Amino acid sequence: MMSWRERYPAEVTCVRCLEVWESQELDRLLWCERCRALARNRAAGKGWWVGGGVAAALAAYIWFVVQPSDRIVGGWIGVTVAAFYLAARMAREIFYGVERVRNAPAVEALPPSERPPEGEDDEPPDDRPRVSFR
Ligand SMILES: [Zn+2]
After folding, report:
1. Which has the least CB within 10 A, 36, 103, 111, 121?
2. How far apart are the CA of 88 and the centre of ligand 1, in A?
3. Beta partners for 22?
4. Is residue 1 situated within a structural domain?
5. Is residue 36 part of a domain?
6. Distance from the alpha carbon of residue 26 to the mean position of ligand 1, in angstroms
7. Residue 63 is part of which domain span?
8. How much is the mean pLDDT over the chain?
């Protein structure tokens, strides 16, 4: 059986960062491991904000509309925390899925002047400035 990888040469350029990788390090969309991790991290970061917004809206609804008695307010706090995690997780999956579907090229690419010197790019720091070509 012909696997999809065999249609590509041994070295393939990642569509996101435009760096050349061994073909087995890329996935079907030709994203390298690092670009997938970056997209996941970004999606998770945005997901927490959505979760926070949902939780805040829910907490306001509970506080002003439901007006729980002191006895059961702990239960409502639990509901709010659960909503926060669920909304953040769902939003993360959606953001990541959207990035995958859009598959925008070269969004992780760095201009040559900002590339780290050869051999020092094993662990890129997360706060490195990135340039988007969008
Ligand atoms: Zn990449």
Report:
1. 111
2. 25
3. 11
4. yes
5. no
6. 8
7. 41-102
8. 86
